[in-house]
Amino acid sequence: MERLFSDISMSLDGFIAGPFAGPEHPLGIGGDRLHQWVYQLESWRRQHGLSGGVPGPESDAMRESFERTGAYLMGHGMYRVSSQSWGTHPPFSKPVFVLSHTPREPDVRTGGTTFMFVTDGLRGALARAKDAAGLRDVCLAGGADIIQQAIGAGVLDELRLHIVPVLLGSGTRLFDRIGAEYIEWETSRVNGASGTVHLTLRPTAPARSA
Amino acid sequence: MERLFSDISMSLDGFIAGPFAGPEHPLGIGGDRLHQWVYQLESWRRQHGLSGGVPGPESDAMRESFERTGAYLMGHGMYRVSSQSWGTHPPFSKPVFVLSHTPREPDVRTGGTTFMFVTDGLRGALARAKDAAGLRDVCLAGGADIIQQAIGAGVLDELRLHIVPVLLGSGTRLFDRIGAEYIEWETSRVNGASGTVHLTLRPTAPARSA
Q1: Which structural domain range is residue B128 located in?
Q2: A140-181: per-residue pLDDT in tens?
């Protein structure tokens, strides 16, 4: 059964991007700090066509995340701010389904990445991504809005959350606008290297009134 | 040298209390969930005059936190909402300095807890608490406002943060209103038992413009 998972880095104060995110600064001002731990990993560098890097458990976990992914699901905001920075050879190498309001022709790039724009809502886009993923999983790439929608709708099966020990003070919060409900998660793995705290979380109780 | 530390439980989405905190619900609606991991510890139960409970590393860490504390520092909001629930024998058994706007006679209770109201600001209250603590440390009990003030002023030496894998959705955020600055922390200990993630954090770079 294909699962929907997300793999995302968050600051201690809950931000996944700094302020003023836009095409010039896709991660916002200061947001790059959240990804420093990953840029140095061997598996991340290989995925991006680079050699070298640090091997070990963090690199292995990142490789596992790449390998289990058969397709990506993405919000239109993330596509809009990051599209230019990915260049002609984006690091996905898989079909990417972008949840959109307006129909648009696919954006085909080299290396196996094709962005397809889906206008029939989160569940429609998820169904198409699961079809495309075959026996693999669907990775929910972000941004925050679509992750919040997926949590609220109860369709996010797993959240791989990397908590980076920095306070950004402002920017885009991962957990916001989910409403006055609470959701219980199971913490199924914790390993701390490089100062970053890696959690694999699975919702155990669906959203309910607090 | 006496240090100022704080020891606090936070939800995944950054709340240390649920919504509608007040004298009837000092931790807000649903906020009790954040402390379930601690209520069962042997050391916590002993501190509260109860027997039994679960021994182990989490209990030991909590005992260490009690034992290193020579005095407490507290915001007036926390005193106001929680004062009644602590009853005649509060669990502090130490002097508690409450940062206030208006002078007031000390509130003396049994078991060694005396609440003293200090009106000369955070630094004044901290100086008095450090004097009272002798060679021990000062524990910043909360709430969120005074912790944010202490982080912003660069006087919080250590934050023992317990991240509980639950989304509360609303309530009081621990990290809020600290401004568009970022602060780097060193993660000095990570141990995960009972599903809660325990971090000991020390600021390594003071607040600076992002």
Answers
A1: 4-209
A2: 999 999 999 999 888 999 999 999 999 998 899 999 887 656
Both tokens of residue B114?
């005396």
Strands A114-118 and A107-108: antiparallel
How large is the ipTM? 0.88
Enter the pTM of the model. Answer: 0.91
Give burial (CB, 10 Å; 0-12/13-18/19+) of B92.
buried
Q: What confidence category does residue A66 fall into, taking pLDDT thresholds of 50, 70 and 90? A: very high
Contacts of B192 in chain A (CB under 8 A): 187, 190
CA-closest candidate to residue B121, choices B93, B140, B149:
B149
- Alpha-carbon torsion (B164, B167, B173, B175), positive or negative: positive
Cα A19 to chain centroid, rounded: 18
Share of chain B above pLDDT 70, in %: 91
pLDDT level of residue A208 (50, 70, 90 thresholds): very low
Q: Shortest Cα distance from B180 to chain A (angstroms)?
A: 5
Tokens of B187: 């993660």
- The alpha carbon of residue B106 is apart from the nearest alpha carbon of chain A, in Å, by 35
pLDDT at A176: 87
Q: Which of A194, A3, A148, A32 is nearest to B12 (CA)?
A: A148
- Determine the residue of chain A that is closest to B203 in CA distance: A166
Phi then psi dihedrals of residue A83, to 5 deg: -50, -45
Eight-state DSSP code of residue A129? H
A200: domain CATH number is: 3.40.430.10
Split into its structural domains, chain B has a count of 1
Altogether, the residues listed in chain B come to a count of: 210
End-to-end CA distance of chain B: 31
Q: Examine the pLDDT at B176 and tell me if it is beyond 90.
A: no
